[in-house]
From TrEMBL, chains A, B:
Transmembrane segments: none annotated. Gene3D superfamilies: YaeB-like. Pfam families: TrmO_N. This is tRNA (N6-threonylcarbamoyladenosine(37)-N6)-methyltransferase TrmO. One of its GO terms (molecular function) is methyltransferase activity. Residues 22-157 form the TsaA-like domain. It comes from Rhodosalinus halophilus. The keyword Methyltransferase applies. Keywords: Methyltransferase, S-adenosyl-L-methionine, Transferase. GO terms for biological process: methylation. Belongs to the tRNA methyltransferase O family.
Length: 158, 158
């Protein structure tokens, strides 16, 4: 594994120290391929969103009841194709190395990505949702959907 | 397992269909005990915050570099003491049953809780952070810390 100057690795793979497991409730589908993904959601929106949609597996579709088109939701997805042992990183866009927990890099001990997206169309019966954008590549495992809540999901103030 | 009227279970435990594992980077410490937790972060703040703090395990502490006191961060934590198979729920505070993905209930296929909190004190060397509040009970495994980003973590508009 190569490292940029200032980067630090853990010396072990956190995946080898798992205490619980995650299941896929479906997948994120997009126009992005591994190696050609937008760097983040903002860049994804600038590139047109990526024809982003969700495919929810059949057993989990009843869990969509109560969601609505136009609603903002959190996606938790597993970006598991990257290394998990880098604890200080030197991203190309940042000035100098920074701790992994001060970055939104997909490279992290538990590669659970967090994205705030808007539902544009929703078909609970087929488990298909179109969303405004994603930075995930096609086929990324989806772990969870949560409603965005005004009361707790933003810092107080303007 | 008991069910309220209108609730639906999956018929399997998603934990038995894991494709990857999560590791604890530390723990959330608080005044709350299982069975006496606030229902959510807003209620936790109304109850004084719960003397909330984080203890990061030694190997992961370099990952805190770049975080600062006063900063808002996301916590991802594992609420793994609940069942994972309830896909439609009838919470006491809601009117009628709703899909799990339309709720912030800790009962969900992948029990990864999401909390936006503010760092009040930070000691990267000892891995101790005080935060303004948590609804997690004492000892809850912490999976990740991410910086809150104004550009992607709130819906556009006022």
């Amino acid at each position: 594994m190569t490292a940029r100057a200032g980067e630090e690795a853990l010396g072990f793979d956190p995946g080898d120290r798992s205490f619980a497991g995650v299941a896929a409730i479906g997948r994120i589908r997009s126009a992005w391929r591994a190696g050609d993904c937008p760097r983040n959601l903002r860049q994804a929106r600038e590139r047109g969103g990526g024809h982003a949609r969700l495919e929810i597996d059949a057993p989990y579709r009843p869990g969509l009841a109560g969601l609505a088109e136009g609603q903002w939701i959190w996606l938790l997805a597993w970006y598991g194709d990257r290394r998990r042992d880098l604890i200080v990183q030197a991203p190309a866009h940042a000035e100098g190395p920074r701790g992994t927990f001060a970055l939104r890099s997909p490279v992290r001990p538990n590669p659970v990505a967090l994205q705030l997206v808007r539902i544009t169309t929703l078909d609970a019966e087929t488990g298909r949702l179109e969303i405004d954008a994603t930075d995930a590549f096609d086929g990324t495992p989806l772990l969870d959907i949560k409603p965005w809540l005004d009361t707790v999901d933003r810092p107080p103030g303007p």
